[in-house]
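Field: COMPLEX_INPUT
Field: COMPONENT_COUNT = two
Field: RESIDUE_TOTAL = 866
Field: MODE = joint
Values follow.
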Amino acid sequence: MNIHYDARLDGDLPRQDKATVLADLKRSVPDMTLLHREEDLRPFECDGLSAYRALPMLVALPDDLEQVATLLIRCHALGVPVVTRGAGTGLSGGALPLEQGVLLVMSRFDRILEVDPDARTARVQPGVRNLAISEAAAPYGLYYAPDPSSQIACSIGGNVAENAGGVHCLKYGLTVHNVMRVELLTLEGERLVLGSEALDAPGFDLLALINGSEGMLGIVTEITVRLLPKPETAKVLMASFDDVAQAGRAVGDIIAAGIVPGGLEMMDNLAIRAAEDFIHAGYPVEAAAILLCELDGVEDDVDADCEAARRVMEAAGAIEVRQARDEAERALFWAGRKNAFPAVGRMSPDYYCMDGTIPRRALPQVLETIAELSETYGLRVANVFHAGDGNMHPLILFDANREGELERAEALGGQILEACVAAGGSITGEHGVGREKINQMCVQFQSDELTTFHSVKAAFDPKRLLNPGKNIPTLARCAEFGALHVHHGKLPHPDLPRF
Amino acid sequence: MDTSTQTLPDRDATQALGERIRQADAEGTPLRIVGGDTKAFYGRKVQGRSMEVETLSTREHRGITTYDPVELIVSARAGTPLAELEATLAEQGQMLPFEPPHFGAEATLGGMVAAGLSGPRRPWAGAVRDFVLGIRMIDRHGRSLRFGGEVMKNVAGYDLSRLVVGAQGTLGLVAEVSLKVLPRPAARHGLRLPMSREEARQRLAEWGRRPLPISAAAWQDGALNLRLEGGAGSVAATRREFGGDDLEDDYWDTLRELRLPFFDTADPRPLWRLSLPQRARLDIEGLDEDTMLHDWAGAQRWLRSDLDAGTLRDGVTRAGGHATCLTPGAAEPFTPLAPPLAKYHQRLKAELDPHGIFNPGRLYGGL
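Field: COMPLEX_OUTPUT
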């Protein structure tokens, strides 16, 4: 797809004169770092979805909240779009800059303001790295549960924007389940406090709304997260299967047996081989699929659960079930999984990571569809899943230097997401829509639902200046994309011109 | 027990509900949305701008639409009796982990979502909103819209399915809900440990930093009541460590339903629910915290008091919380919102319900 903002498909967007905006911002926020030369802007042209690039008009790196508020007020007054960026590790292009917009980089807000071990909370600035929170909490035996693979680099503000997940979601939830309070600046520069350090707050649950809103409703300036006591022990089982469908069924059987693993991950043969070649984790390279099943909690319970999970997986047809002998081997089993993306990256010049979710029961059928699509498009696909919660990460292998391969990879990816929706799932489990999946949103939602999203947006940002072109497509885009959903036999927006 | 709801057949009444709503929007008729009408006391009276309020019942729109225990997900229509839903889950050894209060046999799933109230397990398991995965909502045009879905993880679009939890029906009619469910714990034990409130506060902080199988903690009348839930091994080990007297089996259900003697309805003083940071201390003249019931390890405190609402709320707000009055007739049952926050509530309401037909005034005046 054409990644650049397209007024015809994404809605009218003001384009202000760069020199005027620069002069205004220099005057109104004199102490703020403001980048405007091309060579300074270049490092900010993409986020973790590096195939999509756009040079922002200006990059702002504020140091304090007063600067952020003034910047927002000026941009609101001047009609300049604002895209917010944290660490820039997002995989859906949510922080892709706009050529006519200011890129607001929150990375300097990197202070952990308070860790309260008795209340089991941490109050942090949005630029703090995910893993840094757990590191700060570790002396108290506490940690922050959501652990996206990028946790060493990604910022908590970005986690809130995308409602980030990780391998432990099934048991410990997504970002939205672990954030208690957020401070927000609106585009008009007002400070809002959402949620509280109590367990609920009066009024609408705007805290839930902000999680995953991709910087479209406001700028997150402070976050209070809940910390959990570290489990006494964690043990991991690795089960090998010679049939992917059997592995898929074993996942459901474990859950049905009343076991809720801390993590339940699946990898197919291509992913196993890639990871083994890279990490030497001791993975069985002949297996069609492996399951990594981590059970955590109190020693006695974990031992009982390990035994039960082993029996279930053997009954489901596992050819081998191995329990990590010690902490070092457990870490190694996980290292293979956590490095699956870079491992696959070594097999191919480029890869494209997808993020669909499906009901677990649909796993064998969707895998079959992916295998067929892989054949049709002539591109290899390695499959890595958060199997416990039905979140698939098919990795499409391609070579961008070969004519047309990127486009084929994108088309294949789009088809995989549509297969997820057809199976009753979603186009994104944890990476967000961003710019990447803006067209697939037309498959996931009907026009009436999209219109409702636009209403929510209008309540916070009627001028559509916060991260325009991301997350929620216009009806015009969906009409062009051709994925019109015919509702009650009527076209949902007959007033729109068709091209 | 009145079983009239239970005897209704499963039925999809989306079309009839949608038609009524579309009409109401055209006329500007304010609707009071009602399921089992068990939580009428919780919130303000529905009041329109000028027109007479009409009641819209969801009770006929009922039935479980999908339940696959292997997926840990159940979907059901708004009018489905909560008791029926819970019984179906129990047959499969599963449960709603947030333990929603019923306040009557007629309580429905829709009412549970609108009120957004959770039971004793809330601090450890999460609240209603944490388990909502998707909704079908009928908007003011009578259209059935779907947000979220029947999958564990879904970040496509804004999270409207969690936004409506606790919104008291003011943003649209929640017609169907998909929820994450969990297996019932293998082992359970209730115990009572005599101790002062201050000691309970200290012990709970220490225990909170350890991975103990605590799933409920309430202090009242000089004793801390605890529930242990988890695997047989961890519950037995913690039981040995803690000792104490056995607690009545029905204590937590009775507390959840606000039927302990503490909640005696003959007491004429207003009943307050204080939601606070777990360890917050209150400094309010005329308030003795020892006379309160401290549930949720201190994060939800119940109070019978004649104290002036403003005085009480000022003190609770200073401590980082908010106070809700559950006695019918209170002028403002919910803590008023700070001005910028109230503005965005108004804007959201104006966008989604410009004619004010969905439970207007139920949460706040003008909302």
